[in-house]
TrEMBL record:
This is Ribosomal protein L11 methyltransferase. The gene is prmA. NCBIfam families: prmA. It comes from the Bacteria. Its main location: cytoplasm. Signal peptide: none annotated.
Length: 294
């Protein structure tokens, strides 16, 4: 089915309200995009995140009279008369198939490969995680996930318990299990993430060693030898008291989802309880690791 795309520019404060107006004008979906092409934060599961200068993009049926849509929007208090906009025809594609065709097996560290579940593995002797992320975040293509996978591949996980805080697709928890961890615990706020993690654990034959909890249901006094949290800088700072208690004394902590400009601020939130390692950086994103002192 052919589509028409309407792109408008807005501020982060007004973007969501403008998106509602696009829906009222007949748009079948609305997305938000950073208008400066700066690295876009990956959202927490279930979260819509807006940026400072935001493009609001509405998708319309190709039969829609866009002149009528523009005339309707010109009455909006959120837009000035004669507002700048761009209307584009969108090629009709099988978007899911195109995404699947471009998701290839990827190697992380020395042993670990993340492989789409619909492709053949390149090295049967390697540690292979077969992945279908579904609607949850986490394929390994983003630098934050890549940094975490490389870290897990480089530490001794044999017999350890690992907590994946904000587990998304389950990629980090499952990778830890395939790399030798005895048990993993995945925690997330989104039921879709729990479903995706469970499905991927079954696909990798590790479901008997993976426990999954919605954040509101996680057990009290939960602790592990290794804790990894690939979320965002803001939540990492705000949740520092909660995340800091999860590693055992002498346990390891790995944090990502942090831009280089945010890394020191996040590290400062954990320095009291952790001996922080040198910060690792990849494509403007960072990984913060450390050892719990007590």
């Amino acid at each position: 089915m052919p589509w028409i795309q309407l792109r408008l520019n807005s501020t982060g404060q007004q973007a969501e309200a403008l998106g509602d107006e696009l829906i009222e004008s007949g748009s079948v979906s609305v997305t938000f995009q950073d208008s400066h092409d700066t690295p876009v934060f990956e959202p927490l599961p279930g979260e819509t995140r807006l940026w400072g200068d935001t493009d609001v993009i509405g998708l319309y049926d190709a039969e829609t009279d866009m002149k009528m849509v523009i005339a309707q929007l010109e009455n909006s208090p959120l837009l000035a008369k004669g507002f700048i906009h761009k209307i584009e025809q969108i090629e009709d594609k099988d978007w899911e198939r195109e995404w699947m065709d471009n998701f290839h097996p990827m190697r992380f560290g020395e042993r670990l490969w993340i492989c789409p579940s619909w492709r053949d593995v390149p090295d049967p002797t390697a540690v292979n995680v077969m992945l279908d992320p579904g609607l949850a975040f986490g394929t390994g293509t983003h630098p934050t996930t890549s940094l975490c996978l490389e870290w897990l591949d480089g530490i001794d996980l044999e017999g350890k318990t690992v907590i994946d805080f904000g587990c998304g697709s389950g990629i980090l928890a499952i990778a830890a299990l395939k790399l030798g961890a005895a048990k993993a615990i995945g925690i997330d706020i989104d039921p879709q993430a729990i479903t995706a993690s469970r499905d991927n654990a079954e696909r990798n034959s590790v479901s008997n060693r993976l426990s999954l909890y919605l954040a509101k249901d996680q057990p009290e006094e939960l602790q592990a030898d290794v804790v990894v949290a690939n979320i965002l800088a803001g939540p990492l700072r705000e949740l520092a008291p909660m995340i800091s208690v999860l590693p055992k004394s002498g346990g390891l902590l790995g944090l990502s989802g942090v831009l280089a400009t945010q890394a020191e601020g996040v590290a400062d939130a954990y320095h009291e309880l952790f001996e922080i390692d040198p910060i690792a950086e990849k494509e403007e994103w960072c990984r913060i690791t450390g050892v719990k002192r007590y």
